[in-house]
Amino acid sequence: MPLAAELPPGLELDSGNTAWVLMAAALVLFMTPGLAFFYGGMVRSKNLLGMLMQNFFAMGLLGVLWVLVAFSLAFGAFGDGGFIGNLDFVGFKDVVTSTVTLGDPDGLFLSLSIPFVLFAAYQMTFAIITPALITGSTADRLKFSAYVVFIAVWLVLVYAPVAHWVFAGGWLAERGSFDFAGGAVVHINAGAAGLALALLLGRRKGWPETPMPPHSLPLTLLGTGMLWFGWAGFNAGSALAADGIAAQALFNTFIAASAAMLGWLLVERIKDGHATTLGAASGAVAGLVAITPCAGFVGGLSPIIIGFVAGALCFLALGIKRRFKFDDSLDVVAVHLVGGLFGSIALGLFAEDAINPAIPDGMLLGGGSDLFVEQVIAAVAVLAFSLVMSLAIGKVIDLVIGLRVSDEDETVGLDLSQHAEQAYNVG
Question: Is the pLDDT of residue 167 over 70?
Answer without folding.
Answer: yes
